[in-house]
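ZP: hey, is the calcium ion complex queued? I don't see it on the tracker
AM: it wasn't, my bad. submitting now with these inputs:
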Amino acid sequence: MYTKLIQDFLNRQDYINVIPRAALIDMDGTLYDSMPSHARAWQRMMAEVGIELPVEDFFRYEGRTGASTINILFRKAFGRDATEQEVKDLYRRKTELFAALDPVKPMPGAAEMLGFLEQIGIKRVLVTGSGQSSLLNRLNEDFPGAFALDMRVTSRDVTKGKPAPEPYFKGMELADVKPNECIVIDNAPLGVESGHASGAFTIGVTTGPIATEELKEAGADIVFPSMHDLADALPLLVYGLITTSRNYN
Ligand code: CA
């Protein structure tokens, strides 16, 4: 069913096949319906330092580390990077504002997706640009046993966050897999770009205001309109990946 797009992927990457042994999974907007709260907290925090932006803008920065987003906004507004102290203070303030909002809920469909991966023995690795403990600490409660502590890449583990491929490379390292032995699941253009650059089969999920086309342009090999749709399609997609090999024309 997915043969054509899988073959396109194999040809482009010059792989013979894809045997998924690990799934590298983003957190905010993928496992948690947390992006509206993050965007709101970012908007309020930046407004406090005099940078007024519409809330939608903050969806564009999704996936970046906090420091990277702060520096981009500082360069635009003040023509300079933020100091280390400013980054620390502002990220702490953003975290406070986020925590004051209504608690975020797990993304519908995420638990089913994780359950299927477990069932068929695909390792699950968290790859997030977040360093926010409020959600990281909830993972085990909301998705029991899904992400072992040594199967998590957070903002603390990388020097160059998404859209650079480093976070997903780190995830492959943790799972001890090659790029053609994993799939990436991410909801944001920068995250998809990172997954695509890492050479993994990259699945985009549009769980927010970002359009399907934008995730495709960022390099998604396939895009689903919700985590539910992905969870429903995953058995066939994984079967397609395992059974399709490169078609040399
Ligand atoms: Ca995300």
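AM: back. DSSP finds twelve helices and six strands in the chain.
ZP: great, adding it to the tracker
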